[in-house]
Design brief:
Structural class: mainly alpha
Distance between the termini: 42 Å
Number of helices: 9
Strand content: under 5%
Order of helices and strands: HHHHHHHHH
Helix content: 55-70%
Radius of gyration: 14 Å
Length: 147
């Protein structure tokens, strides 16, 4: 097992996931993905696994990010995730958070959304993600804040 997983590995895995679920625009249906996975991906998970220590409530979209983190960890420990080199995500809070943001805001969708010229608030609402996670994701993709 490798100790690391790159952002590029995450991006490629998420691209496959989006294709498997036929998702091409936000918001990404993480709840559906965890409860009704496609054949050959991962096993179904129960949203009741969201413990109080895992659930973070700082924003109206925080529950969706908590589900995305649960999904990220679930994918990472699945056979599919291990085959895609994602197992380190399961063992690292930072990697879990990063992978959850990639799941919620796939690169292609973010780039397309940014081209629309919508405001930051509109994009946050379109992706249904907390502002802080949105800003971190933009930084990960090489976009700088303009204020």
């Amino acid at each position: 097992m490798s100790d690391e997983v790159t952002l590029e590995q995450m991006e490629l895995a998420v691209q496959e996931i989006m294709e498997a679920f036929d998702v091409d625009q936000p918001p990404v249906p993480v709840e559906l993905m965890i409860e009704r996975p496609r054949d050959g991906l991962w096993s179904r998970a129960d949203l009741a696994e969201l413990t109080s220590s895992f659930l973070v409530m700082t924003d109206r979209y925080s529950p969706r990010m908590s589900v995305a983190r649960l999904l990220a960890r679930h994918i990472a420990r699945s056979d599919w995730g291990v085959e895609h080199g994602l197992e380190p995500v399961f063992h690292s809070k930072n990697l879990t958070n990063t992978f959850a943001r990639v799941l919620m805001m796939p690169r292609r969708m973010v780039e397309h959304a940014l081209e629309s010229g919508q405001s930051e608030v509109a994009l946050i609402n379109r992706f249904e993600v907390p502002e802080n996670d949105f800003m971190i994701r933009l930084e990960d993709l090489g976009y700088t804040q303009e204020k």
